[in-house]
Amino acid sequence: MSTAAMPEFPAGFRWGVSTSAYQIEGGVDENGRGASIWDTFAHSPGRIADGSTGDVACDHYHRHAEDVALLAGLGVSAYRFSIAWPRVRPTGDGPVDPRGLDFYDRLVDDLLAHGVDPVATLFHWDLPQALEDAGGWLNRDTAHRFAEYADATAARLGDRVKLWITLNEPFIHMSLGHGTGEHAPGRTLLFDAFPVAHHQLLGHGLAVAALRARTTSPVAIANNYSPVRAAGDGAADRAAAAAYEALHNRLFTDPLFGRGYPARLGFDTSAVHAGDLDVIAAPIDVLGVNYYNPTGVRAPREGSPLPFEFVPLDGYPRTAFDWPVAPDGLHELLGWLHRTYADDLPPIQITESGCAYDDAPDADGRVHDPQRIAYLDGHLRAVRAAMAEGVDVTGYFVWSLLDNWEWAEGFTKRFGLVHVDFDTQLRTPKSSYAWLRDLIARP
Q1: Beta-carbon neighbour count of residue 133 at 10 Å?
Q2: Which residues bind substrate (predicted)?
């Protein structure tokens, strides 16, 4: 961690933290909530590292007042949470259950009462199982059901939510959920998963229109980005890096700005209908950037089904996920977005940035996490450096407020500024919580 003073951020810079519904809420059988693909996946033997589920998670559904108090104590100006589609429309396309929206109504009001802007994500991977049974995101109809859900949610909350995010990390949902099967719904389609990409983006565009009709609040999408580094200087390695950059970084960004899909990937684009790309390119007000690490790639071995192969990046400390801690990658990424999309690029907010470490209370019950403090220090300096070079970054959200249920890793990975004892639900702010609180409070 640098010993130099942290550079100042401009007045109005949005300081926030992020969570997602299935990872923290619990209450999966309460008040009419329908099943999601993650309920099904987590209850399938062998899918989750520790055999756990999100049935209880952090019990935020019952403890949200306590968690809002933690947000207020931290001093953040915004809280990014996700709305569980199965709470609002339990079957995905049936009637709205007002009890589901009642929960988010209370949460939004509580946030505002504590001076925290509600930032709502509509889809953070918990597709209603009934829609998956009808084809899920492989089915074009799901995009239209998503727009209806967006309309119903904004009709109830649109007067108070300060920023709407349509999709969270559609690349990850496509690749891990439908390409390799590590995430729900567990499909293994590899490059045949392209319709999932297109229908998510179509749903995004349709939801933008639905939101615009209901609210004047800004609208965004949150994409996961990773700078791509070739393992060598040879033409084959450079081609592999370009292919992966097109897949990870361009596939879900080029269409937002009217550039269509990257041709070099060679996808079967028969799922794209006339007019779809215009819908997808509806103007957005903010580009959400989720960043964790760069990716090393090389040319694939003979017989590989993919045009690239992953390689580890040396020379960086590692998180408990074995991800490289690379603030320089965030600086590089922000510059790449600024150069690549130029005048098309709206203001950026870092909607996720964080790290997993094996944090545990000491004998006095305190949780010291100096590695997380160093991570945040480095990544915030990277953001400020990019801003000084002309990149318009207007906010930074830490992933995550709480240690939570970390998808296929279950309870084995801790990202939180607040430690959670998953047996007792005791919340203990870590030293990183105090560090960030003090940084935000600087005069």
Answers
A1: 14
A2: 23, 124, 168, 292, 399, 406-407
Burial class (CB within 10 angstroms; exposed 0-12, middle 13-18, buried 19+) of 361: middle
Any binding-site annotation on 368?
no
| Class of residue 302 by CB neighbours under 10 A (exposed 0-12, middle 13-18, buried 19+) | exposed
Residue type, 246: A
CA atoms within 13 A on the CB side of 274: 0
Residues paired with 119 in a beta bridge: 80, 163
Task: Kindly provide the b/e burial profile for residues 240-278, where b requires at least 16 CB atoms within 10 angstroms of the residue's own CB.
Answer: bbbbbbbbbbbbbbbbbbeeebbeebebeeebbeeebbe
Residue 341 sits at the vertex; the CA angle it makes with 243 and 236, to the nearest 5 degrees, is 20
Which ranges constitute the DSSP H helices of 135-179? 141-157, 170-174
Residue 223 Ramachandran class (φ > 0 left, ψ -120 to 50 alpha, else beta): beta
Q: Which amino acid is at 310?
A: F
Catalytic residue among 132, 169, 245, 302: 169
- Integer Cα distance of 367 and 361 in angstroms: 4
- In 169-310, alpha helices (H): 170-174, 194-214, 235-245, 276-280
- Quote the pTM value: 0.98
pLDDT, one tens digit for every residue, the chain (443 residues): 777 899 999 999 999 999 999 999 999 999 999 999 999 999 999 999 999 999 999 999 999 999 999 999 999 999 999 999 999 999 999 899 999 999 999 999 999 999 999 999 999 999 999 999 999 999 999 999 999 999 999 999 999 999 999 999 999 999 999 999 999 999 999 999 999 999 999 999 999 999 999 999 999 999 999 999 999 999 999 999 999 999 999 999 999 999 999 998 999 999 999 999 999 999 999 999 999 999 999 999 998 999 999 999 999 999 999 999 999 999 999 999 999 999 999 999 999 999 999 999 999 999 999 999 999 999 999 999 999 999 999 999 999 999 999 999 999 999 999 999 999 999 999 999 999 999 999 97
| 169 is a catalytic site residue | yes
Instruction: Give the Å distances, CA to CA, from 39 to 29, 106, 212.
Output: 10, 24, 31
> Is 124 assigned a ligand-binding role in the annotation?
yes
For the chain, list the domains and their CATH numbers. 14-440 (3.20.20.80)
User: Any known ligand binding at 292?
Assistant: yes
Please identify which of the residues 25, 132, 245, 352 carries the catalytic annotation: 352
Asked if 325 and 375 count as a contact pair (C-beta separation under 8 A), the reply is yes
* Residue 372: count of CB within 10 angstroms of its CB: 27
Determine the longest span between alpha carbons in the chain, in angstroms: 63
